[in-house]
Amino acid sequence: MKNNLLVLLLSLALLFVSCSSDQVILAENGKSDYEIVFMDNASKDQYTAAEHLQEYLYKISGVQLIIVDESSQTIDKKKIYVGNIKEEDLQPYEIKIKTENENVFISGGSDEAVTNAVFEFLNNYLNCRWYAPGVEEIPLSKTIALNPIDYRHIPEITTRTVHSKLFYENHEFADQQKVTYEAFPKYVPEAKVHTFHRFIPEEKFYESHPEYYALRGEKRLPTQLCLTNEKVLEIVKDSVASLFKRNPTASVISVSQDDNQQHCQCNNCSKIDETEGSPAGTMIHFVNQVAKAFPDKTISTLAYQYTRKPPKTRPEPNVLITLCSIECDRSAPIAEKCTDFASDLIGWGKLTNNIRIWDYTTQFTNFLAPFPNIFTLQPNIQLFRDNNAKWIFEQHSHNPSELFELRSYVTAKLLWNPDLDIEKLLEEFTNGYYHEAGPFIKKYVYLIHSKIKEDNDFFLFLYGDPSEAFSSYLKPELLQEYTQLFDEAEKAVAHKQEVVERVKMARLGVDYAVLEACRKNITENYSLLIEDQNLNKTINPMVVSLLDNFINTSRKNNITLMNEMGFTVNEYASNYMSALKIAQKPNKAKGKTVVTLTKPKKYANEDPLVLTDGALGGSSFYANWLGYEGNDMEVVVDLGEPKTINTISLAFLQVTNHVVFFPSSVSYSGSMDNSNFTQLGTLKNPDPLEKTSKVNDIHHFDLDFKPRKIRYLKVSAKNTETPYWHHAAGLPSWVFADEIIIN
Prior knowledge:
Layout (H helix, E strand, L loop, with lengths): L1 H21 L1 E4 L6 E5 L5 H18 L5 E3 L8 E5 L12 E6 L2 E6 L2 H14 L4 E4 L2 E3 L6 E3 L3 E4 L5 E4 L2 H4 L2 H7 L18 H4 L2 H4 L7 E4 L2 E7 L4 H17 L5 E3 L12 H10 L3 H14 L4 E6 L15 E6 L9 H4 L1 H13 L3 E6 L13 H13 L4 E5 L8 H13 L5 H13 L3 H17 L21 H17 L4 H10 L1 H12 L9 E3 L5 E3 L1 H16 L12 H16 L8 E4 L29 E4 L3 E23 L9 E7 L6 E7 L11 E23 L15 E9 L1
Parallel strand pairs: 2-3, 2-4, 4-6, 11-18, 14-15, 15-16, 16-17, 17-18
Antiparallel strand pairs: 1-9, 5-6, 5-10, 7-8, 12-13, 19-20, 21-23, 22-27, 23-26, 23-27, 24-25, 24-26
């Protein structure tokens, strides 16, 4: 028995010695036998990659390796070769890392691949981590020892784009995470997406040539182009040629529909679409003709909304199909909740291998709102990968949004390797970026995602609002639990002010949800006003504190926008402070009966009582606004008994890109019997709708007059017709109103 044990120990010792002798020691006790060698014909990018390697080897070990070219390398030094030094037959995106005869080879099939290979080496084999620009975790060690390496990788997604300023404004961080630092690499700058109006602007052509544009009903409207008009094709070809001439280094241009669904329905276009089984039929016929005229360039077009369903005709080989998932429910993976998109993806895959996915990962109407879709990112990327999508564009928000750093990091990692362990990835980031606060933030992420998963009926929409979720994953008791987790997170890193600021940034989503819950007065605690000991209504101090922290954290982190419509953080703060003032005003209409004489639609449960419920509408049309589509708003408020009044105020919302306009005029009239009304006054819209009108705004139509005694107040708001130049021309517009204040 003892002899057997001795043999085993000797065998293990020999194995250890053997393994140890195979190790490559890059640095030891402040010294190194290595130099970094780049190829004689290396590009600037490859030399920069060698410099990055030198930088991080020094950060780890304190040893500064010299960088030399092939011709200058010394005989007595071991080598770390950066670049395809052996001239192997590597694919353009392929990387290779190999130890051989005590040398290290870090290779790639292109400049981009060499850079990726260096950072993959630093990440995988030297345990370097980069969580955000300027936030890295570099292990410190006097010895850098490598076990034998023989690693090759060809990323299945060859062009990886995360729409985040963290990458666009920090190219080195983009390289560290192996994503592009441009949203549209190699594109003509003036023609990236939604380009029809750029090629044939309505200001120049519509009046003289309406036939160039879409037939909608019996009228031509400049919403889209008529794609069977030969002159339109000629003008677009000329425009494309001109743009390529002005941008000789560009190789891609977008020839794509404008951002609306008002496509041409003339006989010629309709016939093609009917034969093809999709309005993408006319689009592909048209774009193919453009592509044939520029065989050495890539013509990008959209499979988006009405063109998402594939036609029968194959796109030309140099046509890039950009397939967009904008309609999908984000509460679960696309394959589960948006099967029609998955079907369209498969269909396009049968027609072409040249597909770019345009996916969406944030709520565009509320960048900072909690948006529990993080656990859908991986299955969605895997779905795209499995259907041969080589280019994936994940449209985050360029402006910082909810859990911005975490989302940017996780999305980039999954694009490089869609099969990573998502739980380990989240733990790696939360612990690395938030330090001792990490477990609390990780718990928040898991908790809020578990709650939306329980609510199988909730549609998590890109154009939604926190107010939709106050009976779901943002219930009052959950908001309280989320807040407690972030309070504990801040306490855990109270001794690290820099990390405290990161936690404050992470909690913006919860703080914003609480502010909106208070605006809507969902409970006594979550309300704008609270009662003091004397039963007087005063401003809720929690709201004041939250709003102050929200503004300060946003400013410190250069967060300027609340949504894609350009509604700023400063405007949000001003609007909220105005709401606090309005909430304190005496209001004889509060809680009173409201009857609508015209029919509202869809929003606020079509309940006119939201106009007097004390909850104030926010910047989104989901936030407590009563909506009327294509008709005027006409309501009557019953004050219950005759009352003397001299002021009336009613707020209206404008979100022009969603066809929500201020009314052209608002009239107020009073009555004692609900039959005979006397006009109290009419107010015109002080900012009539124009192309330059503010996209997202709230306006109060305030009327002051001599005191009058009335019981019934009639409000008439005139709908503003959608103008011909608007992208929704031909469609009805909306009027949205909330909270009548009478005193």
